[in-house]
Amino acid sequence: MTGAWMKRKGCEISGILLGLHGAMVTEFCEDSEGELLARLRDAVGYEIPIAITLDLHANVTAKMCDLANIIVSYKTYPHMDMRERGGQAGDILQLPRRIRLFS
Fold first, then answer.
1. In this predicted model, what pLDDT tens digit does every residue of 17-26 receive, in sequence order?
2. Cβ proximity of 63 and 30 under 8 Å
3. DSSP 66-79
4. What 3-state class would DSSP assign to 71?
5. pLDDT digits (tens, 9 = 90+) for 56-83
């Protein structure tokens, strides 16, 4: 599935928000969240913004930073503010693109 495929099928996605942790482990790669984001980018293209929320001590990689437009970290441990940080990331996603790029 690619961004072009989604357009042909009439899919309307204005943004994607993922609640990640930042320490996912798989047997096949060391940067699981980066791999997830790469596969998502392959599917939707680069025109659709992707926001992610992460644990405050997440293993943030260069790949994750390259592929996510918005990264918001939890501020509490234990994670009592997951909902608020998800809302914050969603609010940023809704800002006009020109503001997101320069804020």
1. 999 989 888 8
2. no
3. HH-SEEEE--SSS-
4. strand
5. 889 999 999 999 999 999 999 898 999 9
Sheet containing strand 16-19, strands side by side: 16-19, 50-54, 70-73
CA distances from 52 to 14, 20, 62, 71, 100 (A): 15, 6, 14, 5, 14
User: What are phi and psi for residue 53, nearest 5 degrees?
Assistant: -110, 145
Q: Are 17 and 89 in contact (CB under 8 A)?
A: yes
For residue 71, the cross-strand partners are 52
Pairing status of strand 50-54 against strand 70-73: parallel
Q: List Cβ neighbours of 58 (8 Å cut-off, separation of 6 or more).
A: 20, 21, 22, 23, 73
Residue with tokens 């320490």: 23
**Residue 43 CB: number of other CB atoms within 10 A?**
14
